[in-house]
Write a structure and sequence with these properties.
Number of domains: 1
Distance between the termini: 44 Å
Pathway: Pyrimidine metabolism; dTTP biosynthesis
Largest sheet: 4 strands, antiparallel
Order of helices and strands: EEHHHEHEEEEHHEHHH
Family: Belongs to the thymidylate synthase ThyX family.
Subunit structure: Homotetramer.
Oligomer: single chain
Structural class: alpha+beta
CATH class: Alpha Beta
CATH architecture: 2-Layer Sandwich
Keywords: FAD, Flavoprotein, Methyltransferase, NADP, Nucleotide biosynthesis, Transferase
Function: Catalyzes the reductive methylation of 2'-deoxyuridine-5'-monophosphate (dUMP) to 2'-deoxythymidine-5'-monophosphate (dTMP) while utilizing 5,10-methylenetetrahydrofolate (mTHF) as the methyl donor, and NADPH and FADH(2) as the reductant.
Shape: globular
């Protein structure tokens, strides 16, 4: 059994650049000449992307594509799949393969204690005793549940039935494809950032995924990413 505190995010393929936003936007005024106009004036291009972001002209940010490979605990995917518009997913299936014993345990920097009431609470650091308890309790539960899973498989029980004993701390993997507009909406909800004009309170585990996705996207579309930050991290 493997206990893991980190998530994995890889950019598998992409067709995404700031120029994709520009030619899509300029077709409004330049028609078929919009492609030829891309890249002619860097300052004007930056200004156009900022204008589109600020005034929430969103559709030009959809003419691109990024596919990510994500490996994370199932509890992350439960939240991830709430994002449906502009996203496509394919996840590994416990019906068709034997699931590997890789489980999530919080790292030492994960805040463990929730204080306050729903809608108005904060997370604070846990002490050494709480971290020890969490690690030991999770490992014990994982070992028991995976042993039960293996016992049923060995007895000939179908994988789709046996998997019911496995917890949401089990790691799964998926491919997720999106465009920049749908990714910005995801980031606005699943990251906590002082530049955001709308408060967000993501669970730390999905925020870990979001941070890695954002870093990869920022390298592909730096002007768009900067405009997103400059305009309150609100998806157009």
């Amino acid at each position: 059994m493997e206990l893991v505190s980190e998530v994995t995010v890889e950019l598998v393929k992409h067709s995404a650049a700031d120029s994709d936003v520009l030619f899509a936007a300029r077709v409004s005024t330049a028609g078929e000449k919009s492609l030829a106009a891309v890249g002619q004036d860097a300052e004007r291009s930056t200004g156009l992307i900022n204008f589109l972001m600020r005034d929430r002209h969103g559709s030009p940010f959809e003419h691109n594509s990024m596919t990510f490979f994500v490996s994370a605990p199932i509890l992350v995917f439960r939240e991830f799949h709430r994002h449906r518009v502009g996203w496509s997913y394919n996840e590994e299936s416990g019906r068709y393969r034997e699931l590997r014993p890789v489980f999530y345990v919080p790292g030492p920097d994960r805040k463990l204690v929730q204080e306050g009431r729903p809608g108005k609470y904060v997370f604070v650091e846990g002490d050494e005793t709480q971290h020890k308890l969490v690690g030991e309790a999770m490992e014990r539960s994982y070992r028991e549940s995976y042993a039960a899973y293996q016992e049923m498989l060995a007895a000939g029980v179908a994988r789709e039935v046996a998997r019911a004993v496995l917890p949401v701390g089990l790691f799964s993997s998926m491919y997720a494809t999106c465009n920049a507009r749908s990714l910005m909406h995801f980031l606005s909800l699943r990251t906590r950032d002082d530049r955001g004009t709308v408060p967000s309170f993501p669970q730390r585990e999905i925020e870990m995924v979001a941070e890695k996705m954002e870093a990869l996207w920022a390298g592909l579309m730096p002007i768009t990413h900067a405009a997103f930050n400059a305009n309150g991290r609100v998806a157009p």
